[in-house]
Amino acid sequence: MDAKAMLDRALPRMRANAERLMTDSFTVTRSQGEIVDPDTGVSTPKLVQVYKGKGKVQTSGGVASQANTASGESSNVGGIVPVWTLYLHFPVSATGMQPGDMAACDSSADSDLVGRKFRLVNLQSEKTYATARRWNVQEIPKNEGDDADDG
Q1: Which of 32, 56, 71, 98 has the most neighbouring CB atoms within 10 Å?
Q2: Which of 61, 123, 128 is nearest to 88 (CA)?
Q3: The model's pTM
Q4: What is the DSSP letter of 92?
């Protein structure tokens, strides 16, 4: 059996194994314009759901780093700070998400993750034999996007 045939045969099992680790649940929404309250004139984002299902939060890094500005000055007053990369992993079948979409953690074994929101930055698992859709994300501060809970 050639390598491609072996990989094609193993890929469904590898994807299933990746999904077994996706024990959190997320709702991913996209802003499509605004809704204006006719009485108050206050506008809120009109959100559409683009995905609801399993996923997981993943970090990597933690390497001590010193951020420097273009002028060479440290942006952290000379201190060394850990730099972490934050990802959300979704099943390969979770298609249609785009950069800028917002993912809210609905449930997790880690209670500190529940309610946290993440902005999808870019897909970093664009490859033929992916076992998950891995998105680079940025956490959205609690006070930002709070009006978008009803989406």
Answers
A1: 56
A2: 123
A3: 0.77
A4: T
Q: Is the dihedral of CA 59, 65, 66, 71 positive or negative?
A: negative
Q: Which tokens in the block code for residue 61?
A: 């890094």
**Tokens 């664009």 found at:** 126
According to the model, what pLDDT value does residue 127 have? 85
Please give the structure tokens belonging to residue 4.
């491609």
Residue 149: the pLDDT is 47
**61 vs 67: CA distance, rounded Å:** 15
Along the chain (151 residues), what's the average pLDDT of each consecutive run of 10 residues?
Answer: 90 95 98 92 93 95 57 55 84 96 98 97 87 95 60 42
User: What is the C-alpha to C-alpha distance for residues 24 and 89, in angstroms, rounded to an integer?
Assistant: 10
Residues 137, 130, 98: CA angle, nearest 5 degrees: 35
Dihedral of alpha carbons 64, 69, 138, 113, sign: positive
pLDDT at 151: 42
In angstroms, how far is CA 41 from the centroid of its own chain? 32
